[in-house]
């Protein structure tokens, strides 16, 4: 076995797919008795949608969600505020999925599990990681079933309370604010329409009721109950009736609920030898800005192809690239939480900063740009989409990137003669409408090598440097 992934939340499932689709022998274990059934992270960011397209799960994700609904704040019957979290925009040639897409987390996990199973990997439930040791050649893990597993790499995707992180002794500094708590519940409710979400604020309390995409449920937010003995349905009924002043809204059933505590933490390291942390195991966020799950999925997508290749420089690049991303996501979520605490009028509004499209690895170990006069897009940036012509056929760059290979784009120059086999696919870009040139801003004679995870690794004018770079980074012999 090559890799043991501990935890089958969104991060662990994404990593399982990224590995299994490359033919890596992987097991994904989870200590839970049953699959997770709550809405939790229901906002999928544009960059995550691009990742999902590459992992072949975009269609079911789009089929099971929506763009989110209009929100209205009420005082009694009167609407005192109305707006959208973000205003939907049309796709552009460089950004085919520009909007946040709402899907409940349990549905996203179900879709990822189905894709993983189609690659021959079933999640092993009721199987906890209990302990592990590592040496130069691998990791020996002990599972709650009594089994001992020997793998080349172990990945902790085991959430905020990560056993893997604790066993490694990696500190998890940050803040838990017991005073900032919110009850989140998924409920079946009669008496209200699904055409918009409702908030009835009362002081720092009240209630919110928002339709949950792709289901007949609503997500209810309220202050957590103080009487633990009161059934949760009764508590929500009472709270909504009091906040709305309406007695025609009936809470019929509560399918999931949790009390969220403000918890903002970042692990000091994401790696110890052959053991890696991804997702909440490495960083926990306030839900403001919808960064938690999305950042974890990006961690997995960043690590998958590197574990499959296994070269030192690729594995070394994981922690600095993703630490920077996690810091940025935590800062953003914290700023938005402060806006909510202050009661800013635009606290519900989300701008492009939450979408993940501008995140880059410019100062990362894998980014090299040897042009004297780089344009606006440089090594380390996300490689944008564009409609282009290849061998007389109209294609999208994202179609050329789709799959486990690297992609070499030749702008106004011929493709190098080096034989990379199928590991690197090279295309001379013919750009009839100028979209690729607009997105990449690269002069004639430029070669851009796109990593398997869709970021620009090398930008150069020398074919030899492409061969050198690729051999160095992957640890393969120079073509
Ligand atoms: C109320 C709420 C709203 C949120 N809203 C958003 C949002 O809108 N957008 C967003 O991006 N994020 C949001 N989040 C955060 C998001 O839910 C998490 O970031 C995400 O679930 C983390 O995924 P993960 O795979 O890293 O970990 P988890 O989903 O926590 O999964 C970890 C898994 O590991 C398993 N496990 C734990 N220990 C072991 C062990 N020893 N052995 C085996 N298995 C183990 C657990 O059973 C679990 O299944 C929200 C969170 C909450 C609570």
Task: Explain briefly what this protein structure is.
With 479 residues, the protein is an alpha+beta fold.
Please explain how this structure is put together.
The chain is an alpha+beta fold and 479 residues long. It folds into three domains: 3-66 and 97-172 and 264-354, 3-Layer(bba) Sandwich (FAD/NAD(P)-binding domain), CATH 3.50.50.60; 175-262, 2-Layer Sandwich (Alpha-Beta Plaits), CATH 3.30.70.2450; 368-474, Glutaredoxin, CATH 3.40.30. It contains eleven helices and 25 strands. The chain has helices at 10-20, 46-54, 58-63, 105-118, 163-168, 232-244, 292-309, 312-342, 397-401, 435-440, 463-474; strands spanning 3-6, 26-29, 43-44, 70-75, 78-83, 101-102, 129-134, 139-143, 148-151, 153-156, 174-190, 196-202, 205-211, 218-222, 250-266, 271-272, 275-277, 283-284, 368-369, 387-390, 393-396, 406-411, 424-429, 446-450, 456-460. It has an eight-stranded mixed beta sheet. A hairpin with a 2-residue loop joins strand 4 (70-75) and strand 5. Helix 1 packs parallel to helix 4, helix 1 (10-20) runs parallel beside helix 7 (292-309) and helix 7 packs antiparallel against helix 8 (312-342). The two termini are 29 Å apart. The model has no long low-confidence stretch (mean pLDDT 94). Flavin-adenine dinucleotide (FAD) is lined by residues 6-12, 29-32, 36, 40-43, 105, 128-129, 157-159, 163, 184, 258, 260, 279-280, 287, 290-294, 296. Its cofactor is FAD. This is 3-(3-hydroxyphenyl)propionate hydroxylase. InterPro entries: FAD-bd, FAD/NAD-bd_sf, RIFMO-like, Thioredoxin-like_sf. Residues 2-332 form the FAD-binding domain.
């Amino acid at each position: 076995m090559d890799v043991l992934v501990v935890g089958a939340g969104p991060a662990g499932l994404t990593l399982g797919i990224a590995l299994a689709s490359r033919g890596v022998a992987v097991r994904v274990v989870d200590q839970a008795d049953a699959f997770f059934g709550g809405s939790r992270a229901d906002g999928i960011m544009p960059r995550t949608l691009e990742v999902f397209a590459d992992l072949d799960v975009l269609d079911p994700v789009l089929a099971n969600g929506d763009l989110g609904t209009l929100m209205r704040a009420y005082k009694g019957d009167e609407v005192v505020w109305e707006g959208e979290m973000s205003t939907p925009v049309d796709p552009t040639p460089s950004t085919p999925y520009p909007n946040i897409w709402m899907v409940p987390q349990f549905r996203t996990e179900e879709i990822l599990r189905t894709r993983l199973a189609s690659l021959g990997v079933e999640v092993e439930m009721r199987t906890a990681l209990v302990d592990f040791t590592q040496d130069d050649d691998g990791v020996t893990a002990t599972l709650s079933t009594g089994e001992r597993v020997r793998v080349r790499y172990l990945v902790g995707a085991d959430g905020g309370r990560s056993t893997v992180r604790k066993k490694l002794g990696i500190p998890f500094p940050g803040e838990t604010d017991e005073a900032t708590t919110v009850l989140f519940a998924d409920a079946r409710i009669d008496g209200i329409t699904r055409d918009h979400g409702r908030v009835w604020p009362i002081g720092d309390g009240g209630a919110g009721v928002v339709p949950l995409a792709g289901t007949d449920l609503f997500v209810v937010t309220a202050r957590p109950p103080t009487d633990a003995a009161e059934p949760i349905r009764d508590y929500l009924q009472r709270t909504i009736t009091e906040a709305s002043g309406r007695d025609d809204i009936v809470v019929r059933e509560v399918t999931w609920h949790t009390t969220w505590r403000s918890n903002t933490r970042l692990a000091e390291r994401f790696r110890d030898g052959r053991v890696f942390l991804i997702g909440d195991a490495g960083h926990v966020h306030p839900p403001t800005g919808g960064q938690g799950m999305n950042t974890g999925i990006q961690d997995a997508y960043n690590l998958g192809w590197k574990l499959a290749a296994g070269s030192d420089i690729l594995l070394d690049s994981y922690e600095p690239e993703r630490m920077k991303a996690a810091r940025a996501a935590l800062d953003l979520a914290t700023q938005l939480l402060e806006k909510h605490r202050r009661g800013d009028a635009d606290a519900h509004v989300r701008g492009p900063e939450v979408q993940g499209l501008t995140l880059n690895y410019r100062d990362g170990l894998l980014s090299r740009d040897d042009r004297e006069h780089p344009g606006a897009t440089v090594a380390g940036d996300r490689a944008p989409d564009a409609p282009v012509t290849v061998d007389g056929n109209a294609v999208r760059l994202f179609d050329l990137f789709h799959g486990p290979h690297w992609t070499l784009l030749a702008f106004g120059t011929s493709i190098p003669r080096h034989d990379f086999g199928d590991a690197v696919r090279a295309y001379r870009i013919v750009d009839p409408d100028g979209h690729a040139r607009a997105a990449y801003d690269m002069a004639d004679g430029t070669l851009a090598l796109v990593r398997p995870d869709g970021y620009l690794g090398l930008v150069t004018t020398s074919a030899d440097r492409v061969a050198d770079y690729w051999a160095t980074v992957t640890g393969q012999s120079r073509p």
